[in-house]
Specification:
Layout (H helix, E strand, L loop, with lengths): L1 H13 L5 H13 L5 H65 L3 E3 L4 E3 L30 H10 L17
Antiparallel strand pairs: 1-2
Helix pairs in contact: 2-3
């Protein structure tokens, strides 16, 4: 008991310097000790916890803002990429069309060899409702109906599944 009282006295001077884990540990220690200083120390630790929580949430928000900024930059760069790929495709189509119109099948250059080649046939669906049923395939997917499973789990056990409750932090 005396050892903990000594620790509590030391704690008075360092509450604002503690990390979150130490604050939690010290609050638990103070709650275990019967001391006249306990209410004061708890109030100081609560202040330290609130300050630490404020700083941690500010850090988390900062990370979220940075992530959002990165996503915006990714979107911007993807748009640039899409534009450049479109320009490259347009340039290739221009050369191909020109070669086809003038009857050239091949152009040999220093860096490239350009060849107009036949592509494999591809199916174009013009009106799906007119296509006979024999050309359709049925794809079955097996998924767990979690809503129904949850209802049944609330009524009793279901092999292979369990209900789990948790908590989350809401920041407003």
């Amino acid at each position: 008991m005396k050892q903990k009282n000594l620790n509590l006295r030391k704690l008075k001077n360092k509450t604002m310097l503690l990390n979150l884990y130490s604050i939690k540990k010290e609050i638990k220690n103070v709650l275990e000790v019967d001391s006249d200083d306990a209410p004061y120390l708890l109030s100081q630790l609560d202040l330290a916890l609130e300050e630490k929580a404020d700083n941690i949430i500010k850090y988390a928000r900062n990370c979220e803002l940075a992530a959002n900024s990165l996503q915006e930059e990714i979107d911007r760069v993807k748009a640039l990429q899409k534009g450049l790929l479109s320009k490259a495709d347009t340039a290739k189509k221009l050369i191909k069309t020109t070669m086809e119109e003038v009857g050239k099948k091949k152009i040999e250059l220093d860096s490239f060899v350009l060849t107009v080649a036949k592509t494999p046939d591809k199916v174009i669906i013009e009106n799906e409702s007119l296509i006979p049923k024999k050309y359709f395939e049925v794809k079955q997917t097996h998924r767990v109906d979690k809503k129904k499973l949850k209802e049944d789990l609330k009524k009793g056990d279901v092999k292979g599944a369990k209900l789990e409750s948790g908590t989350n932090l809401r920041v407003k």
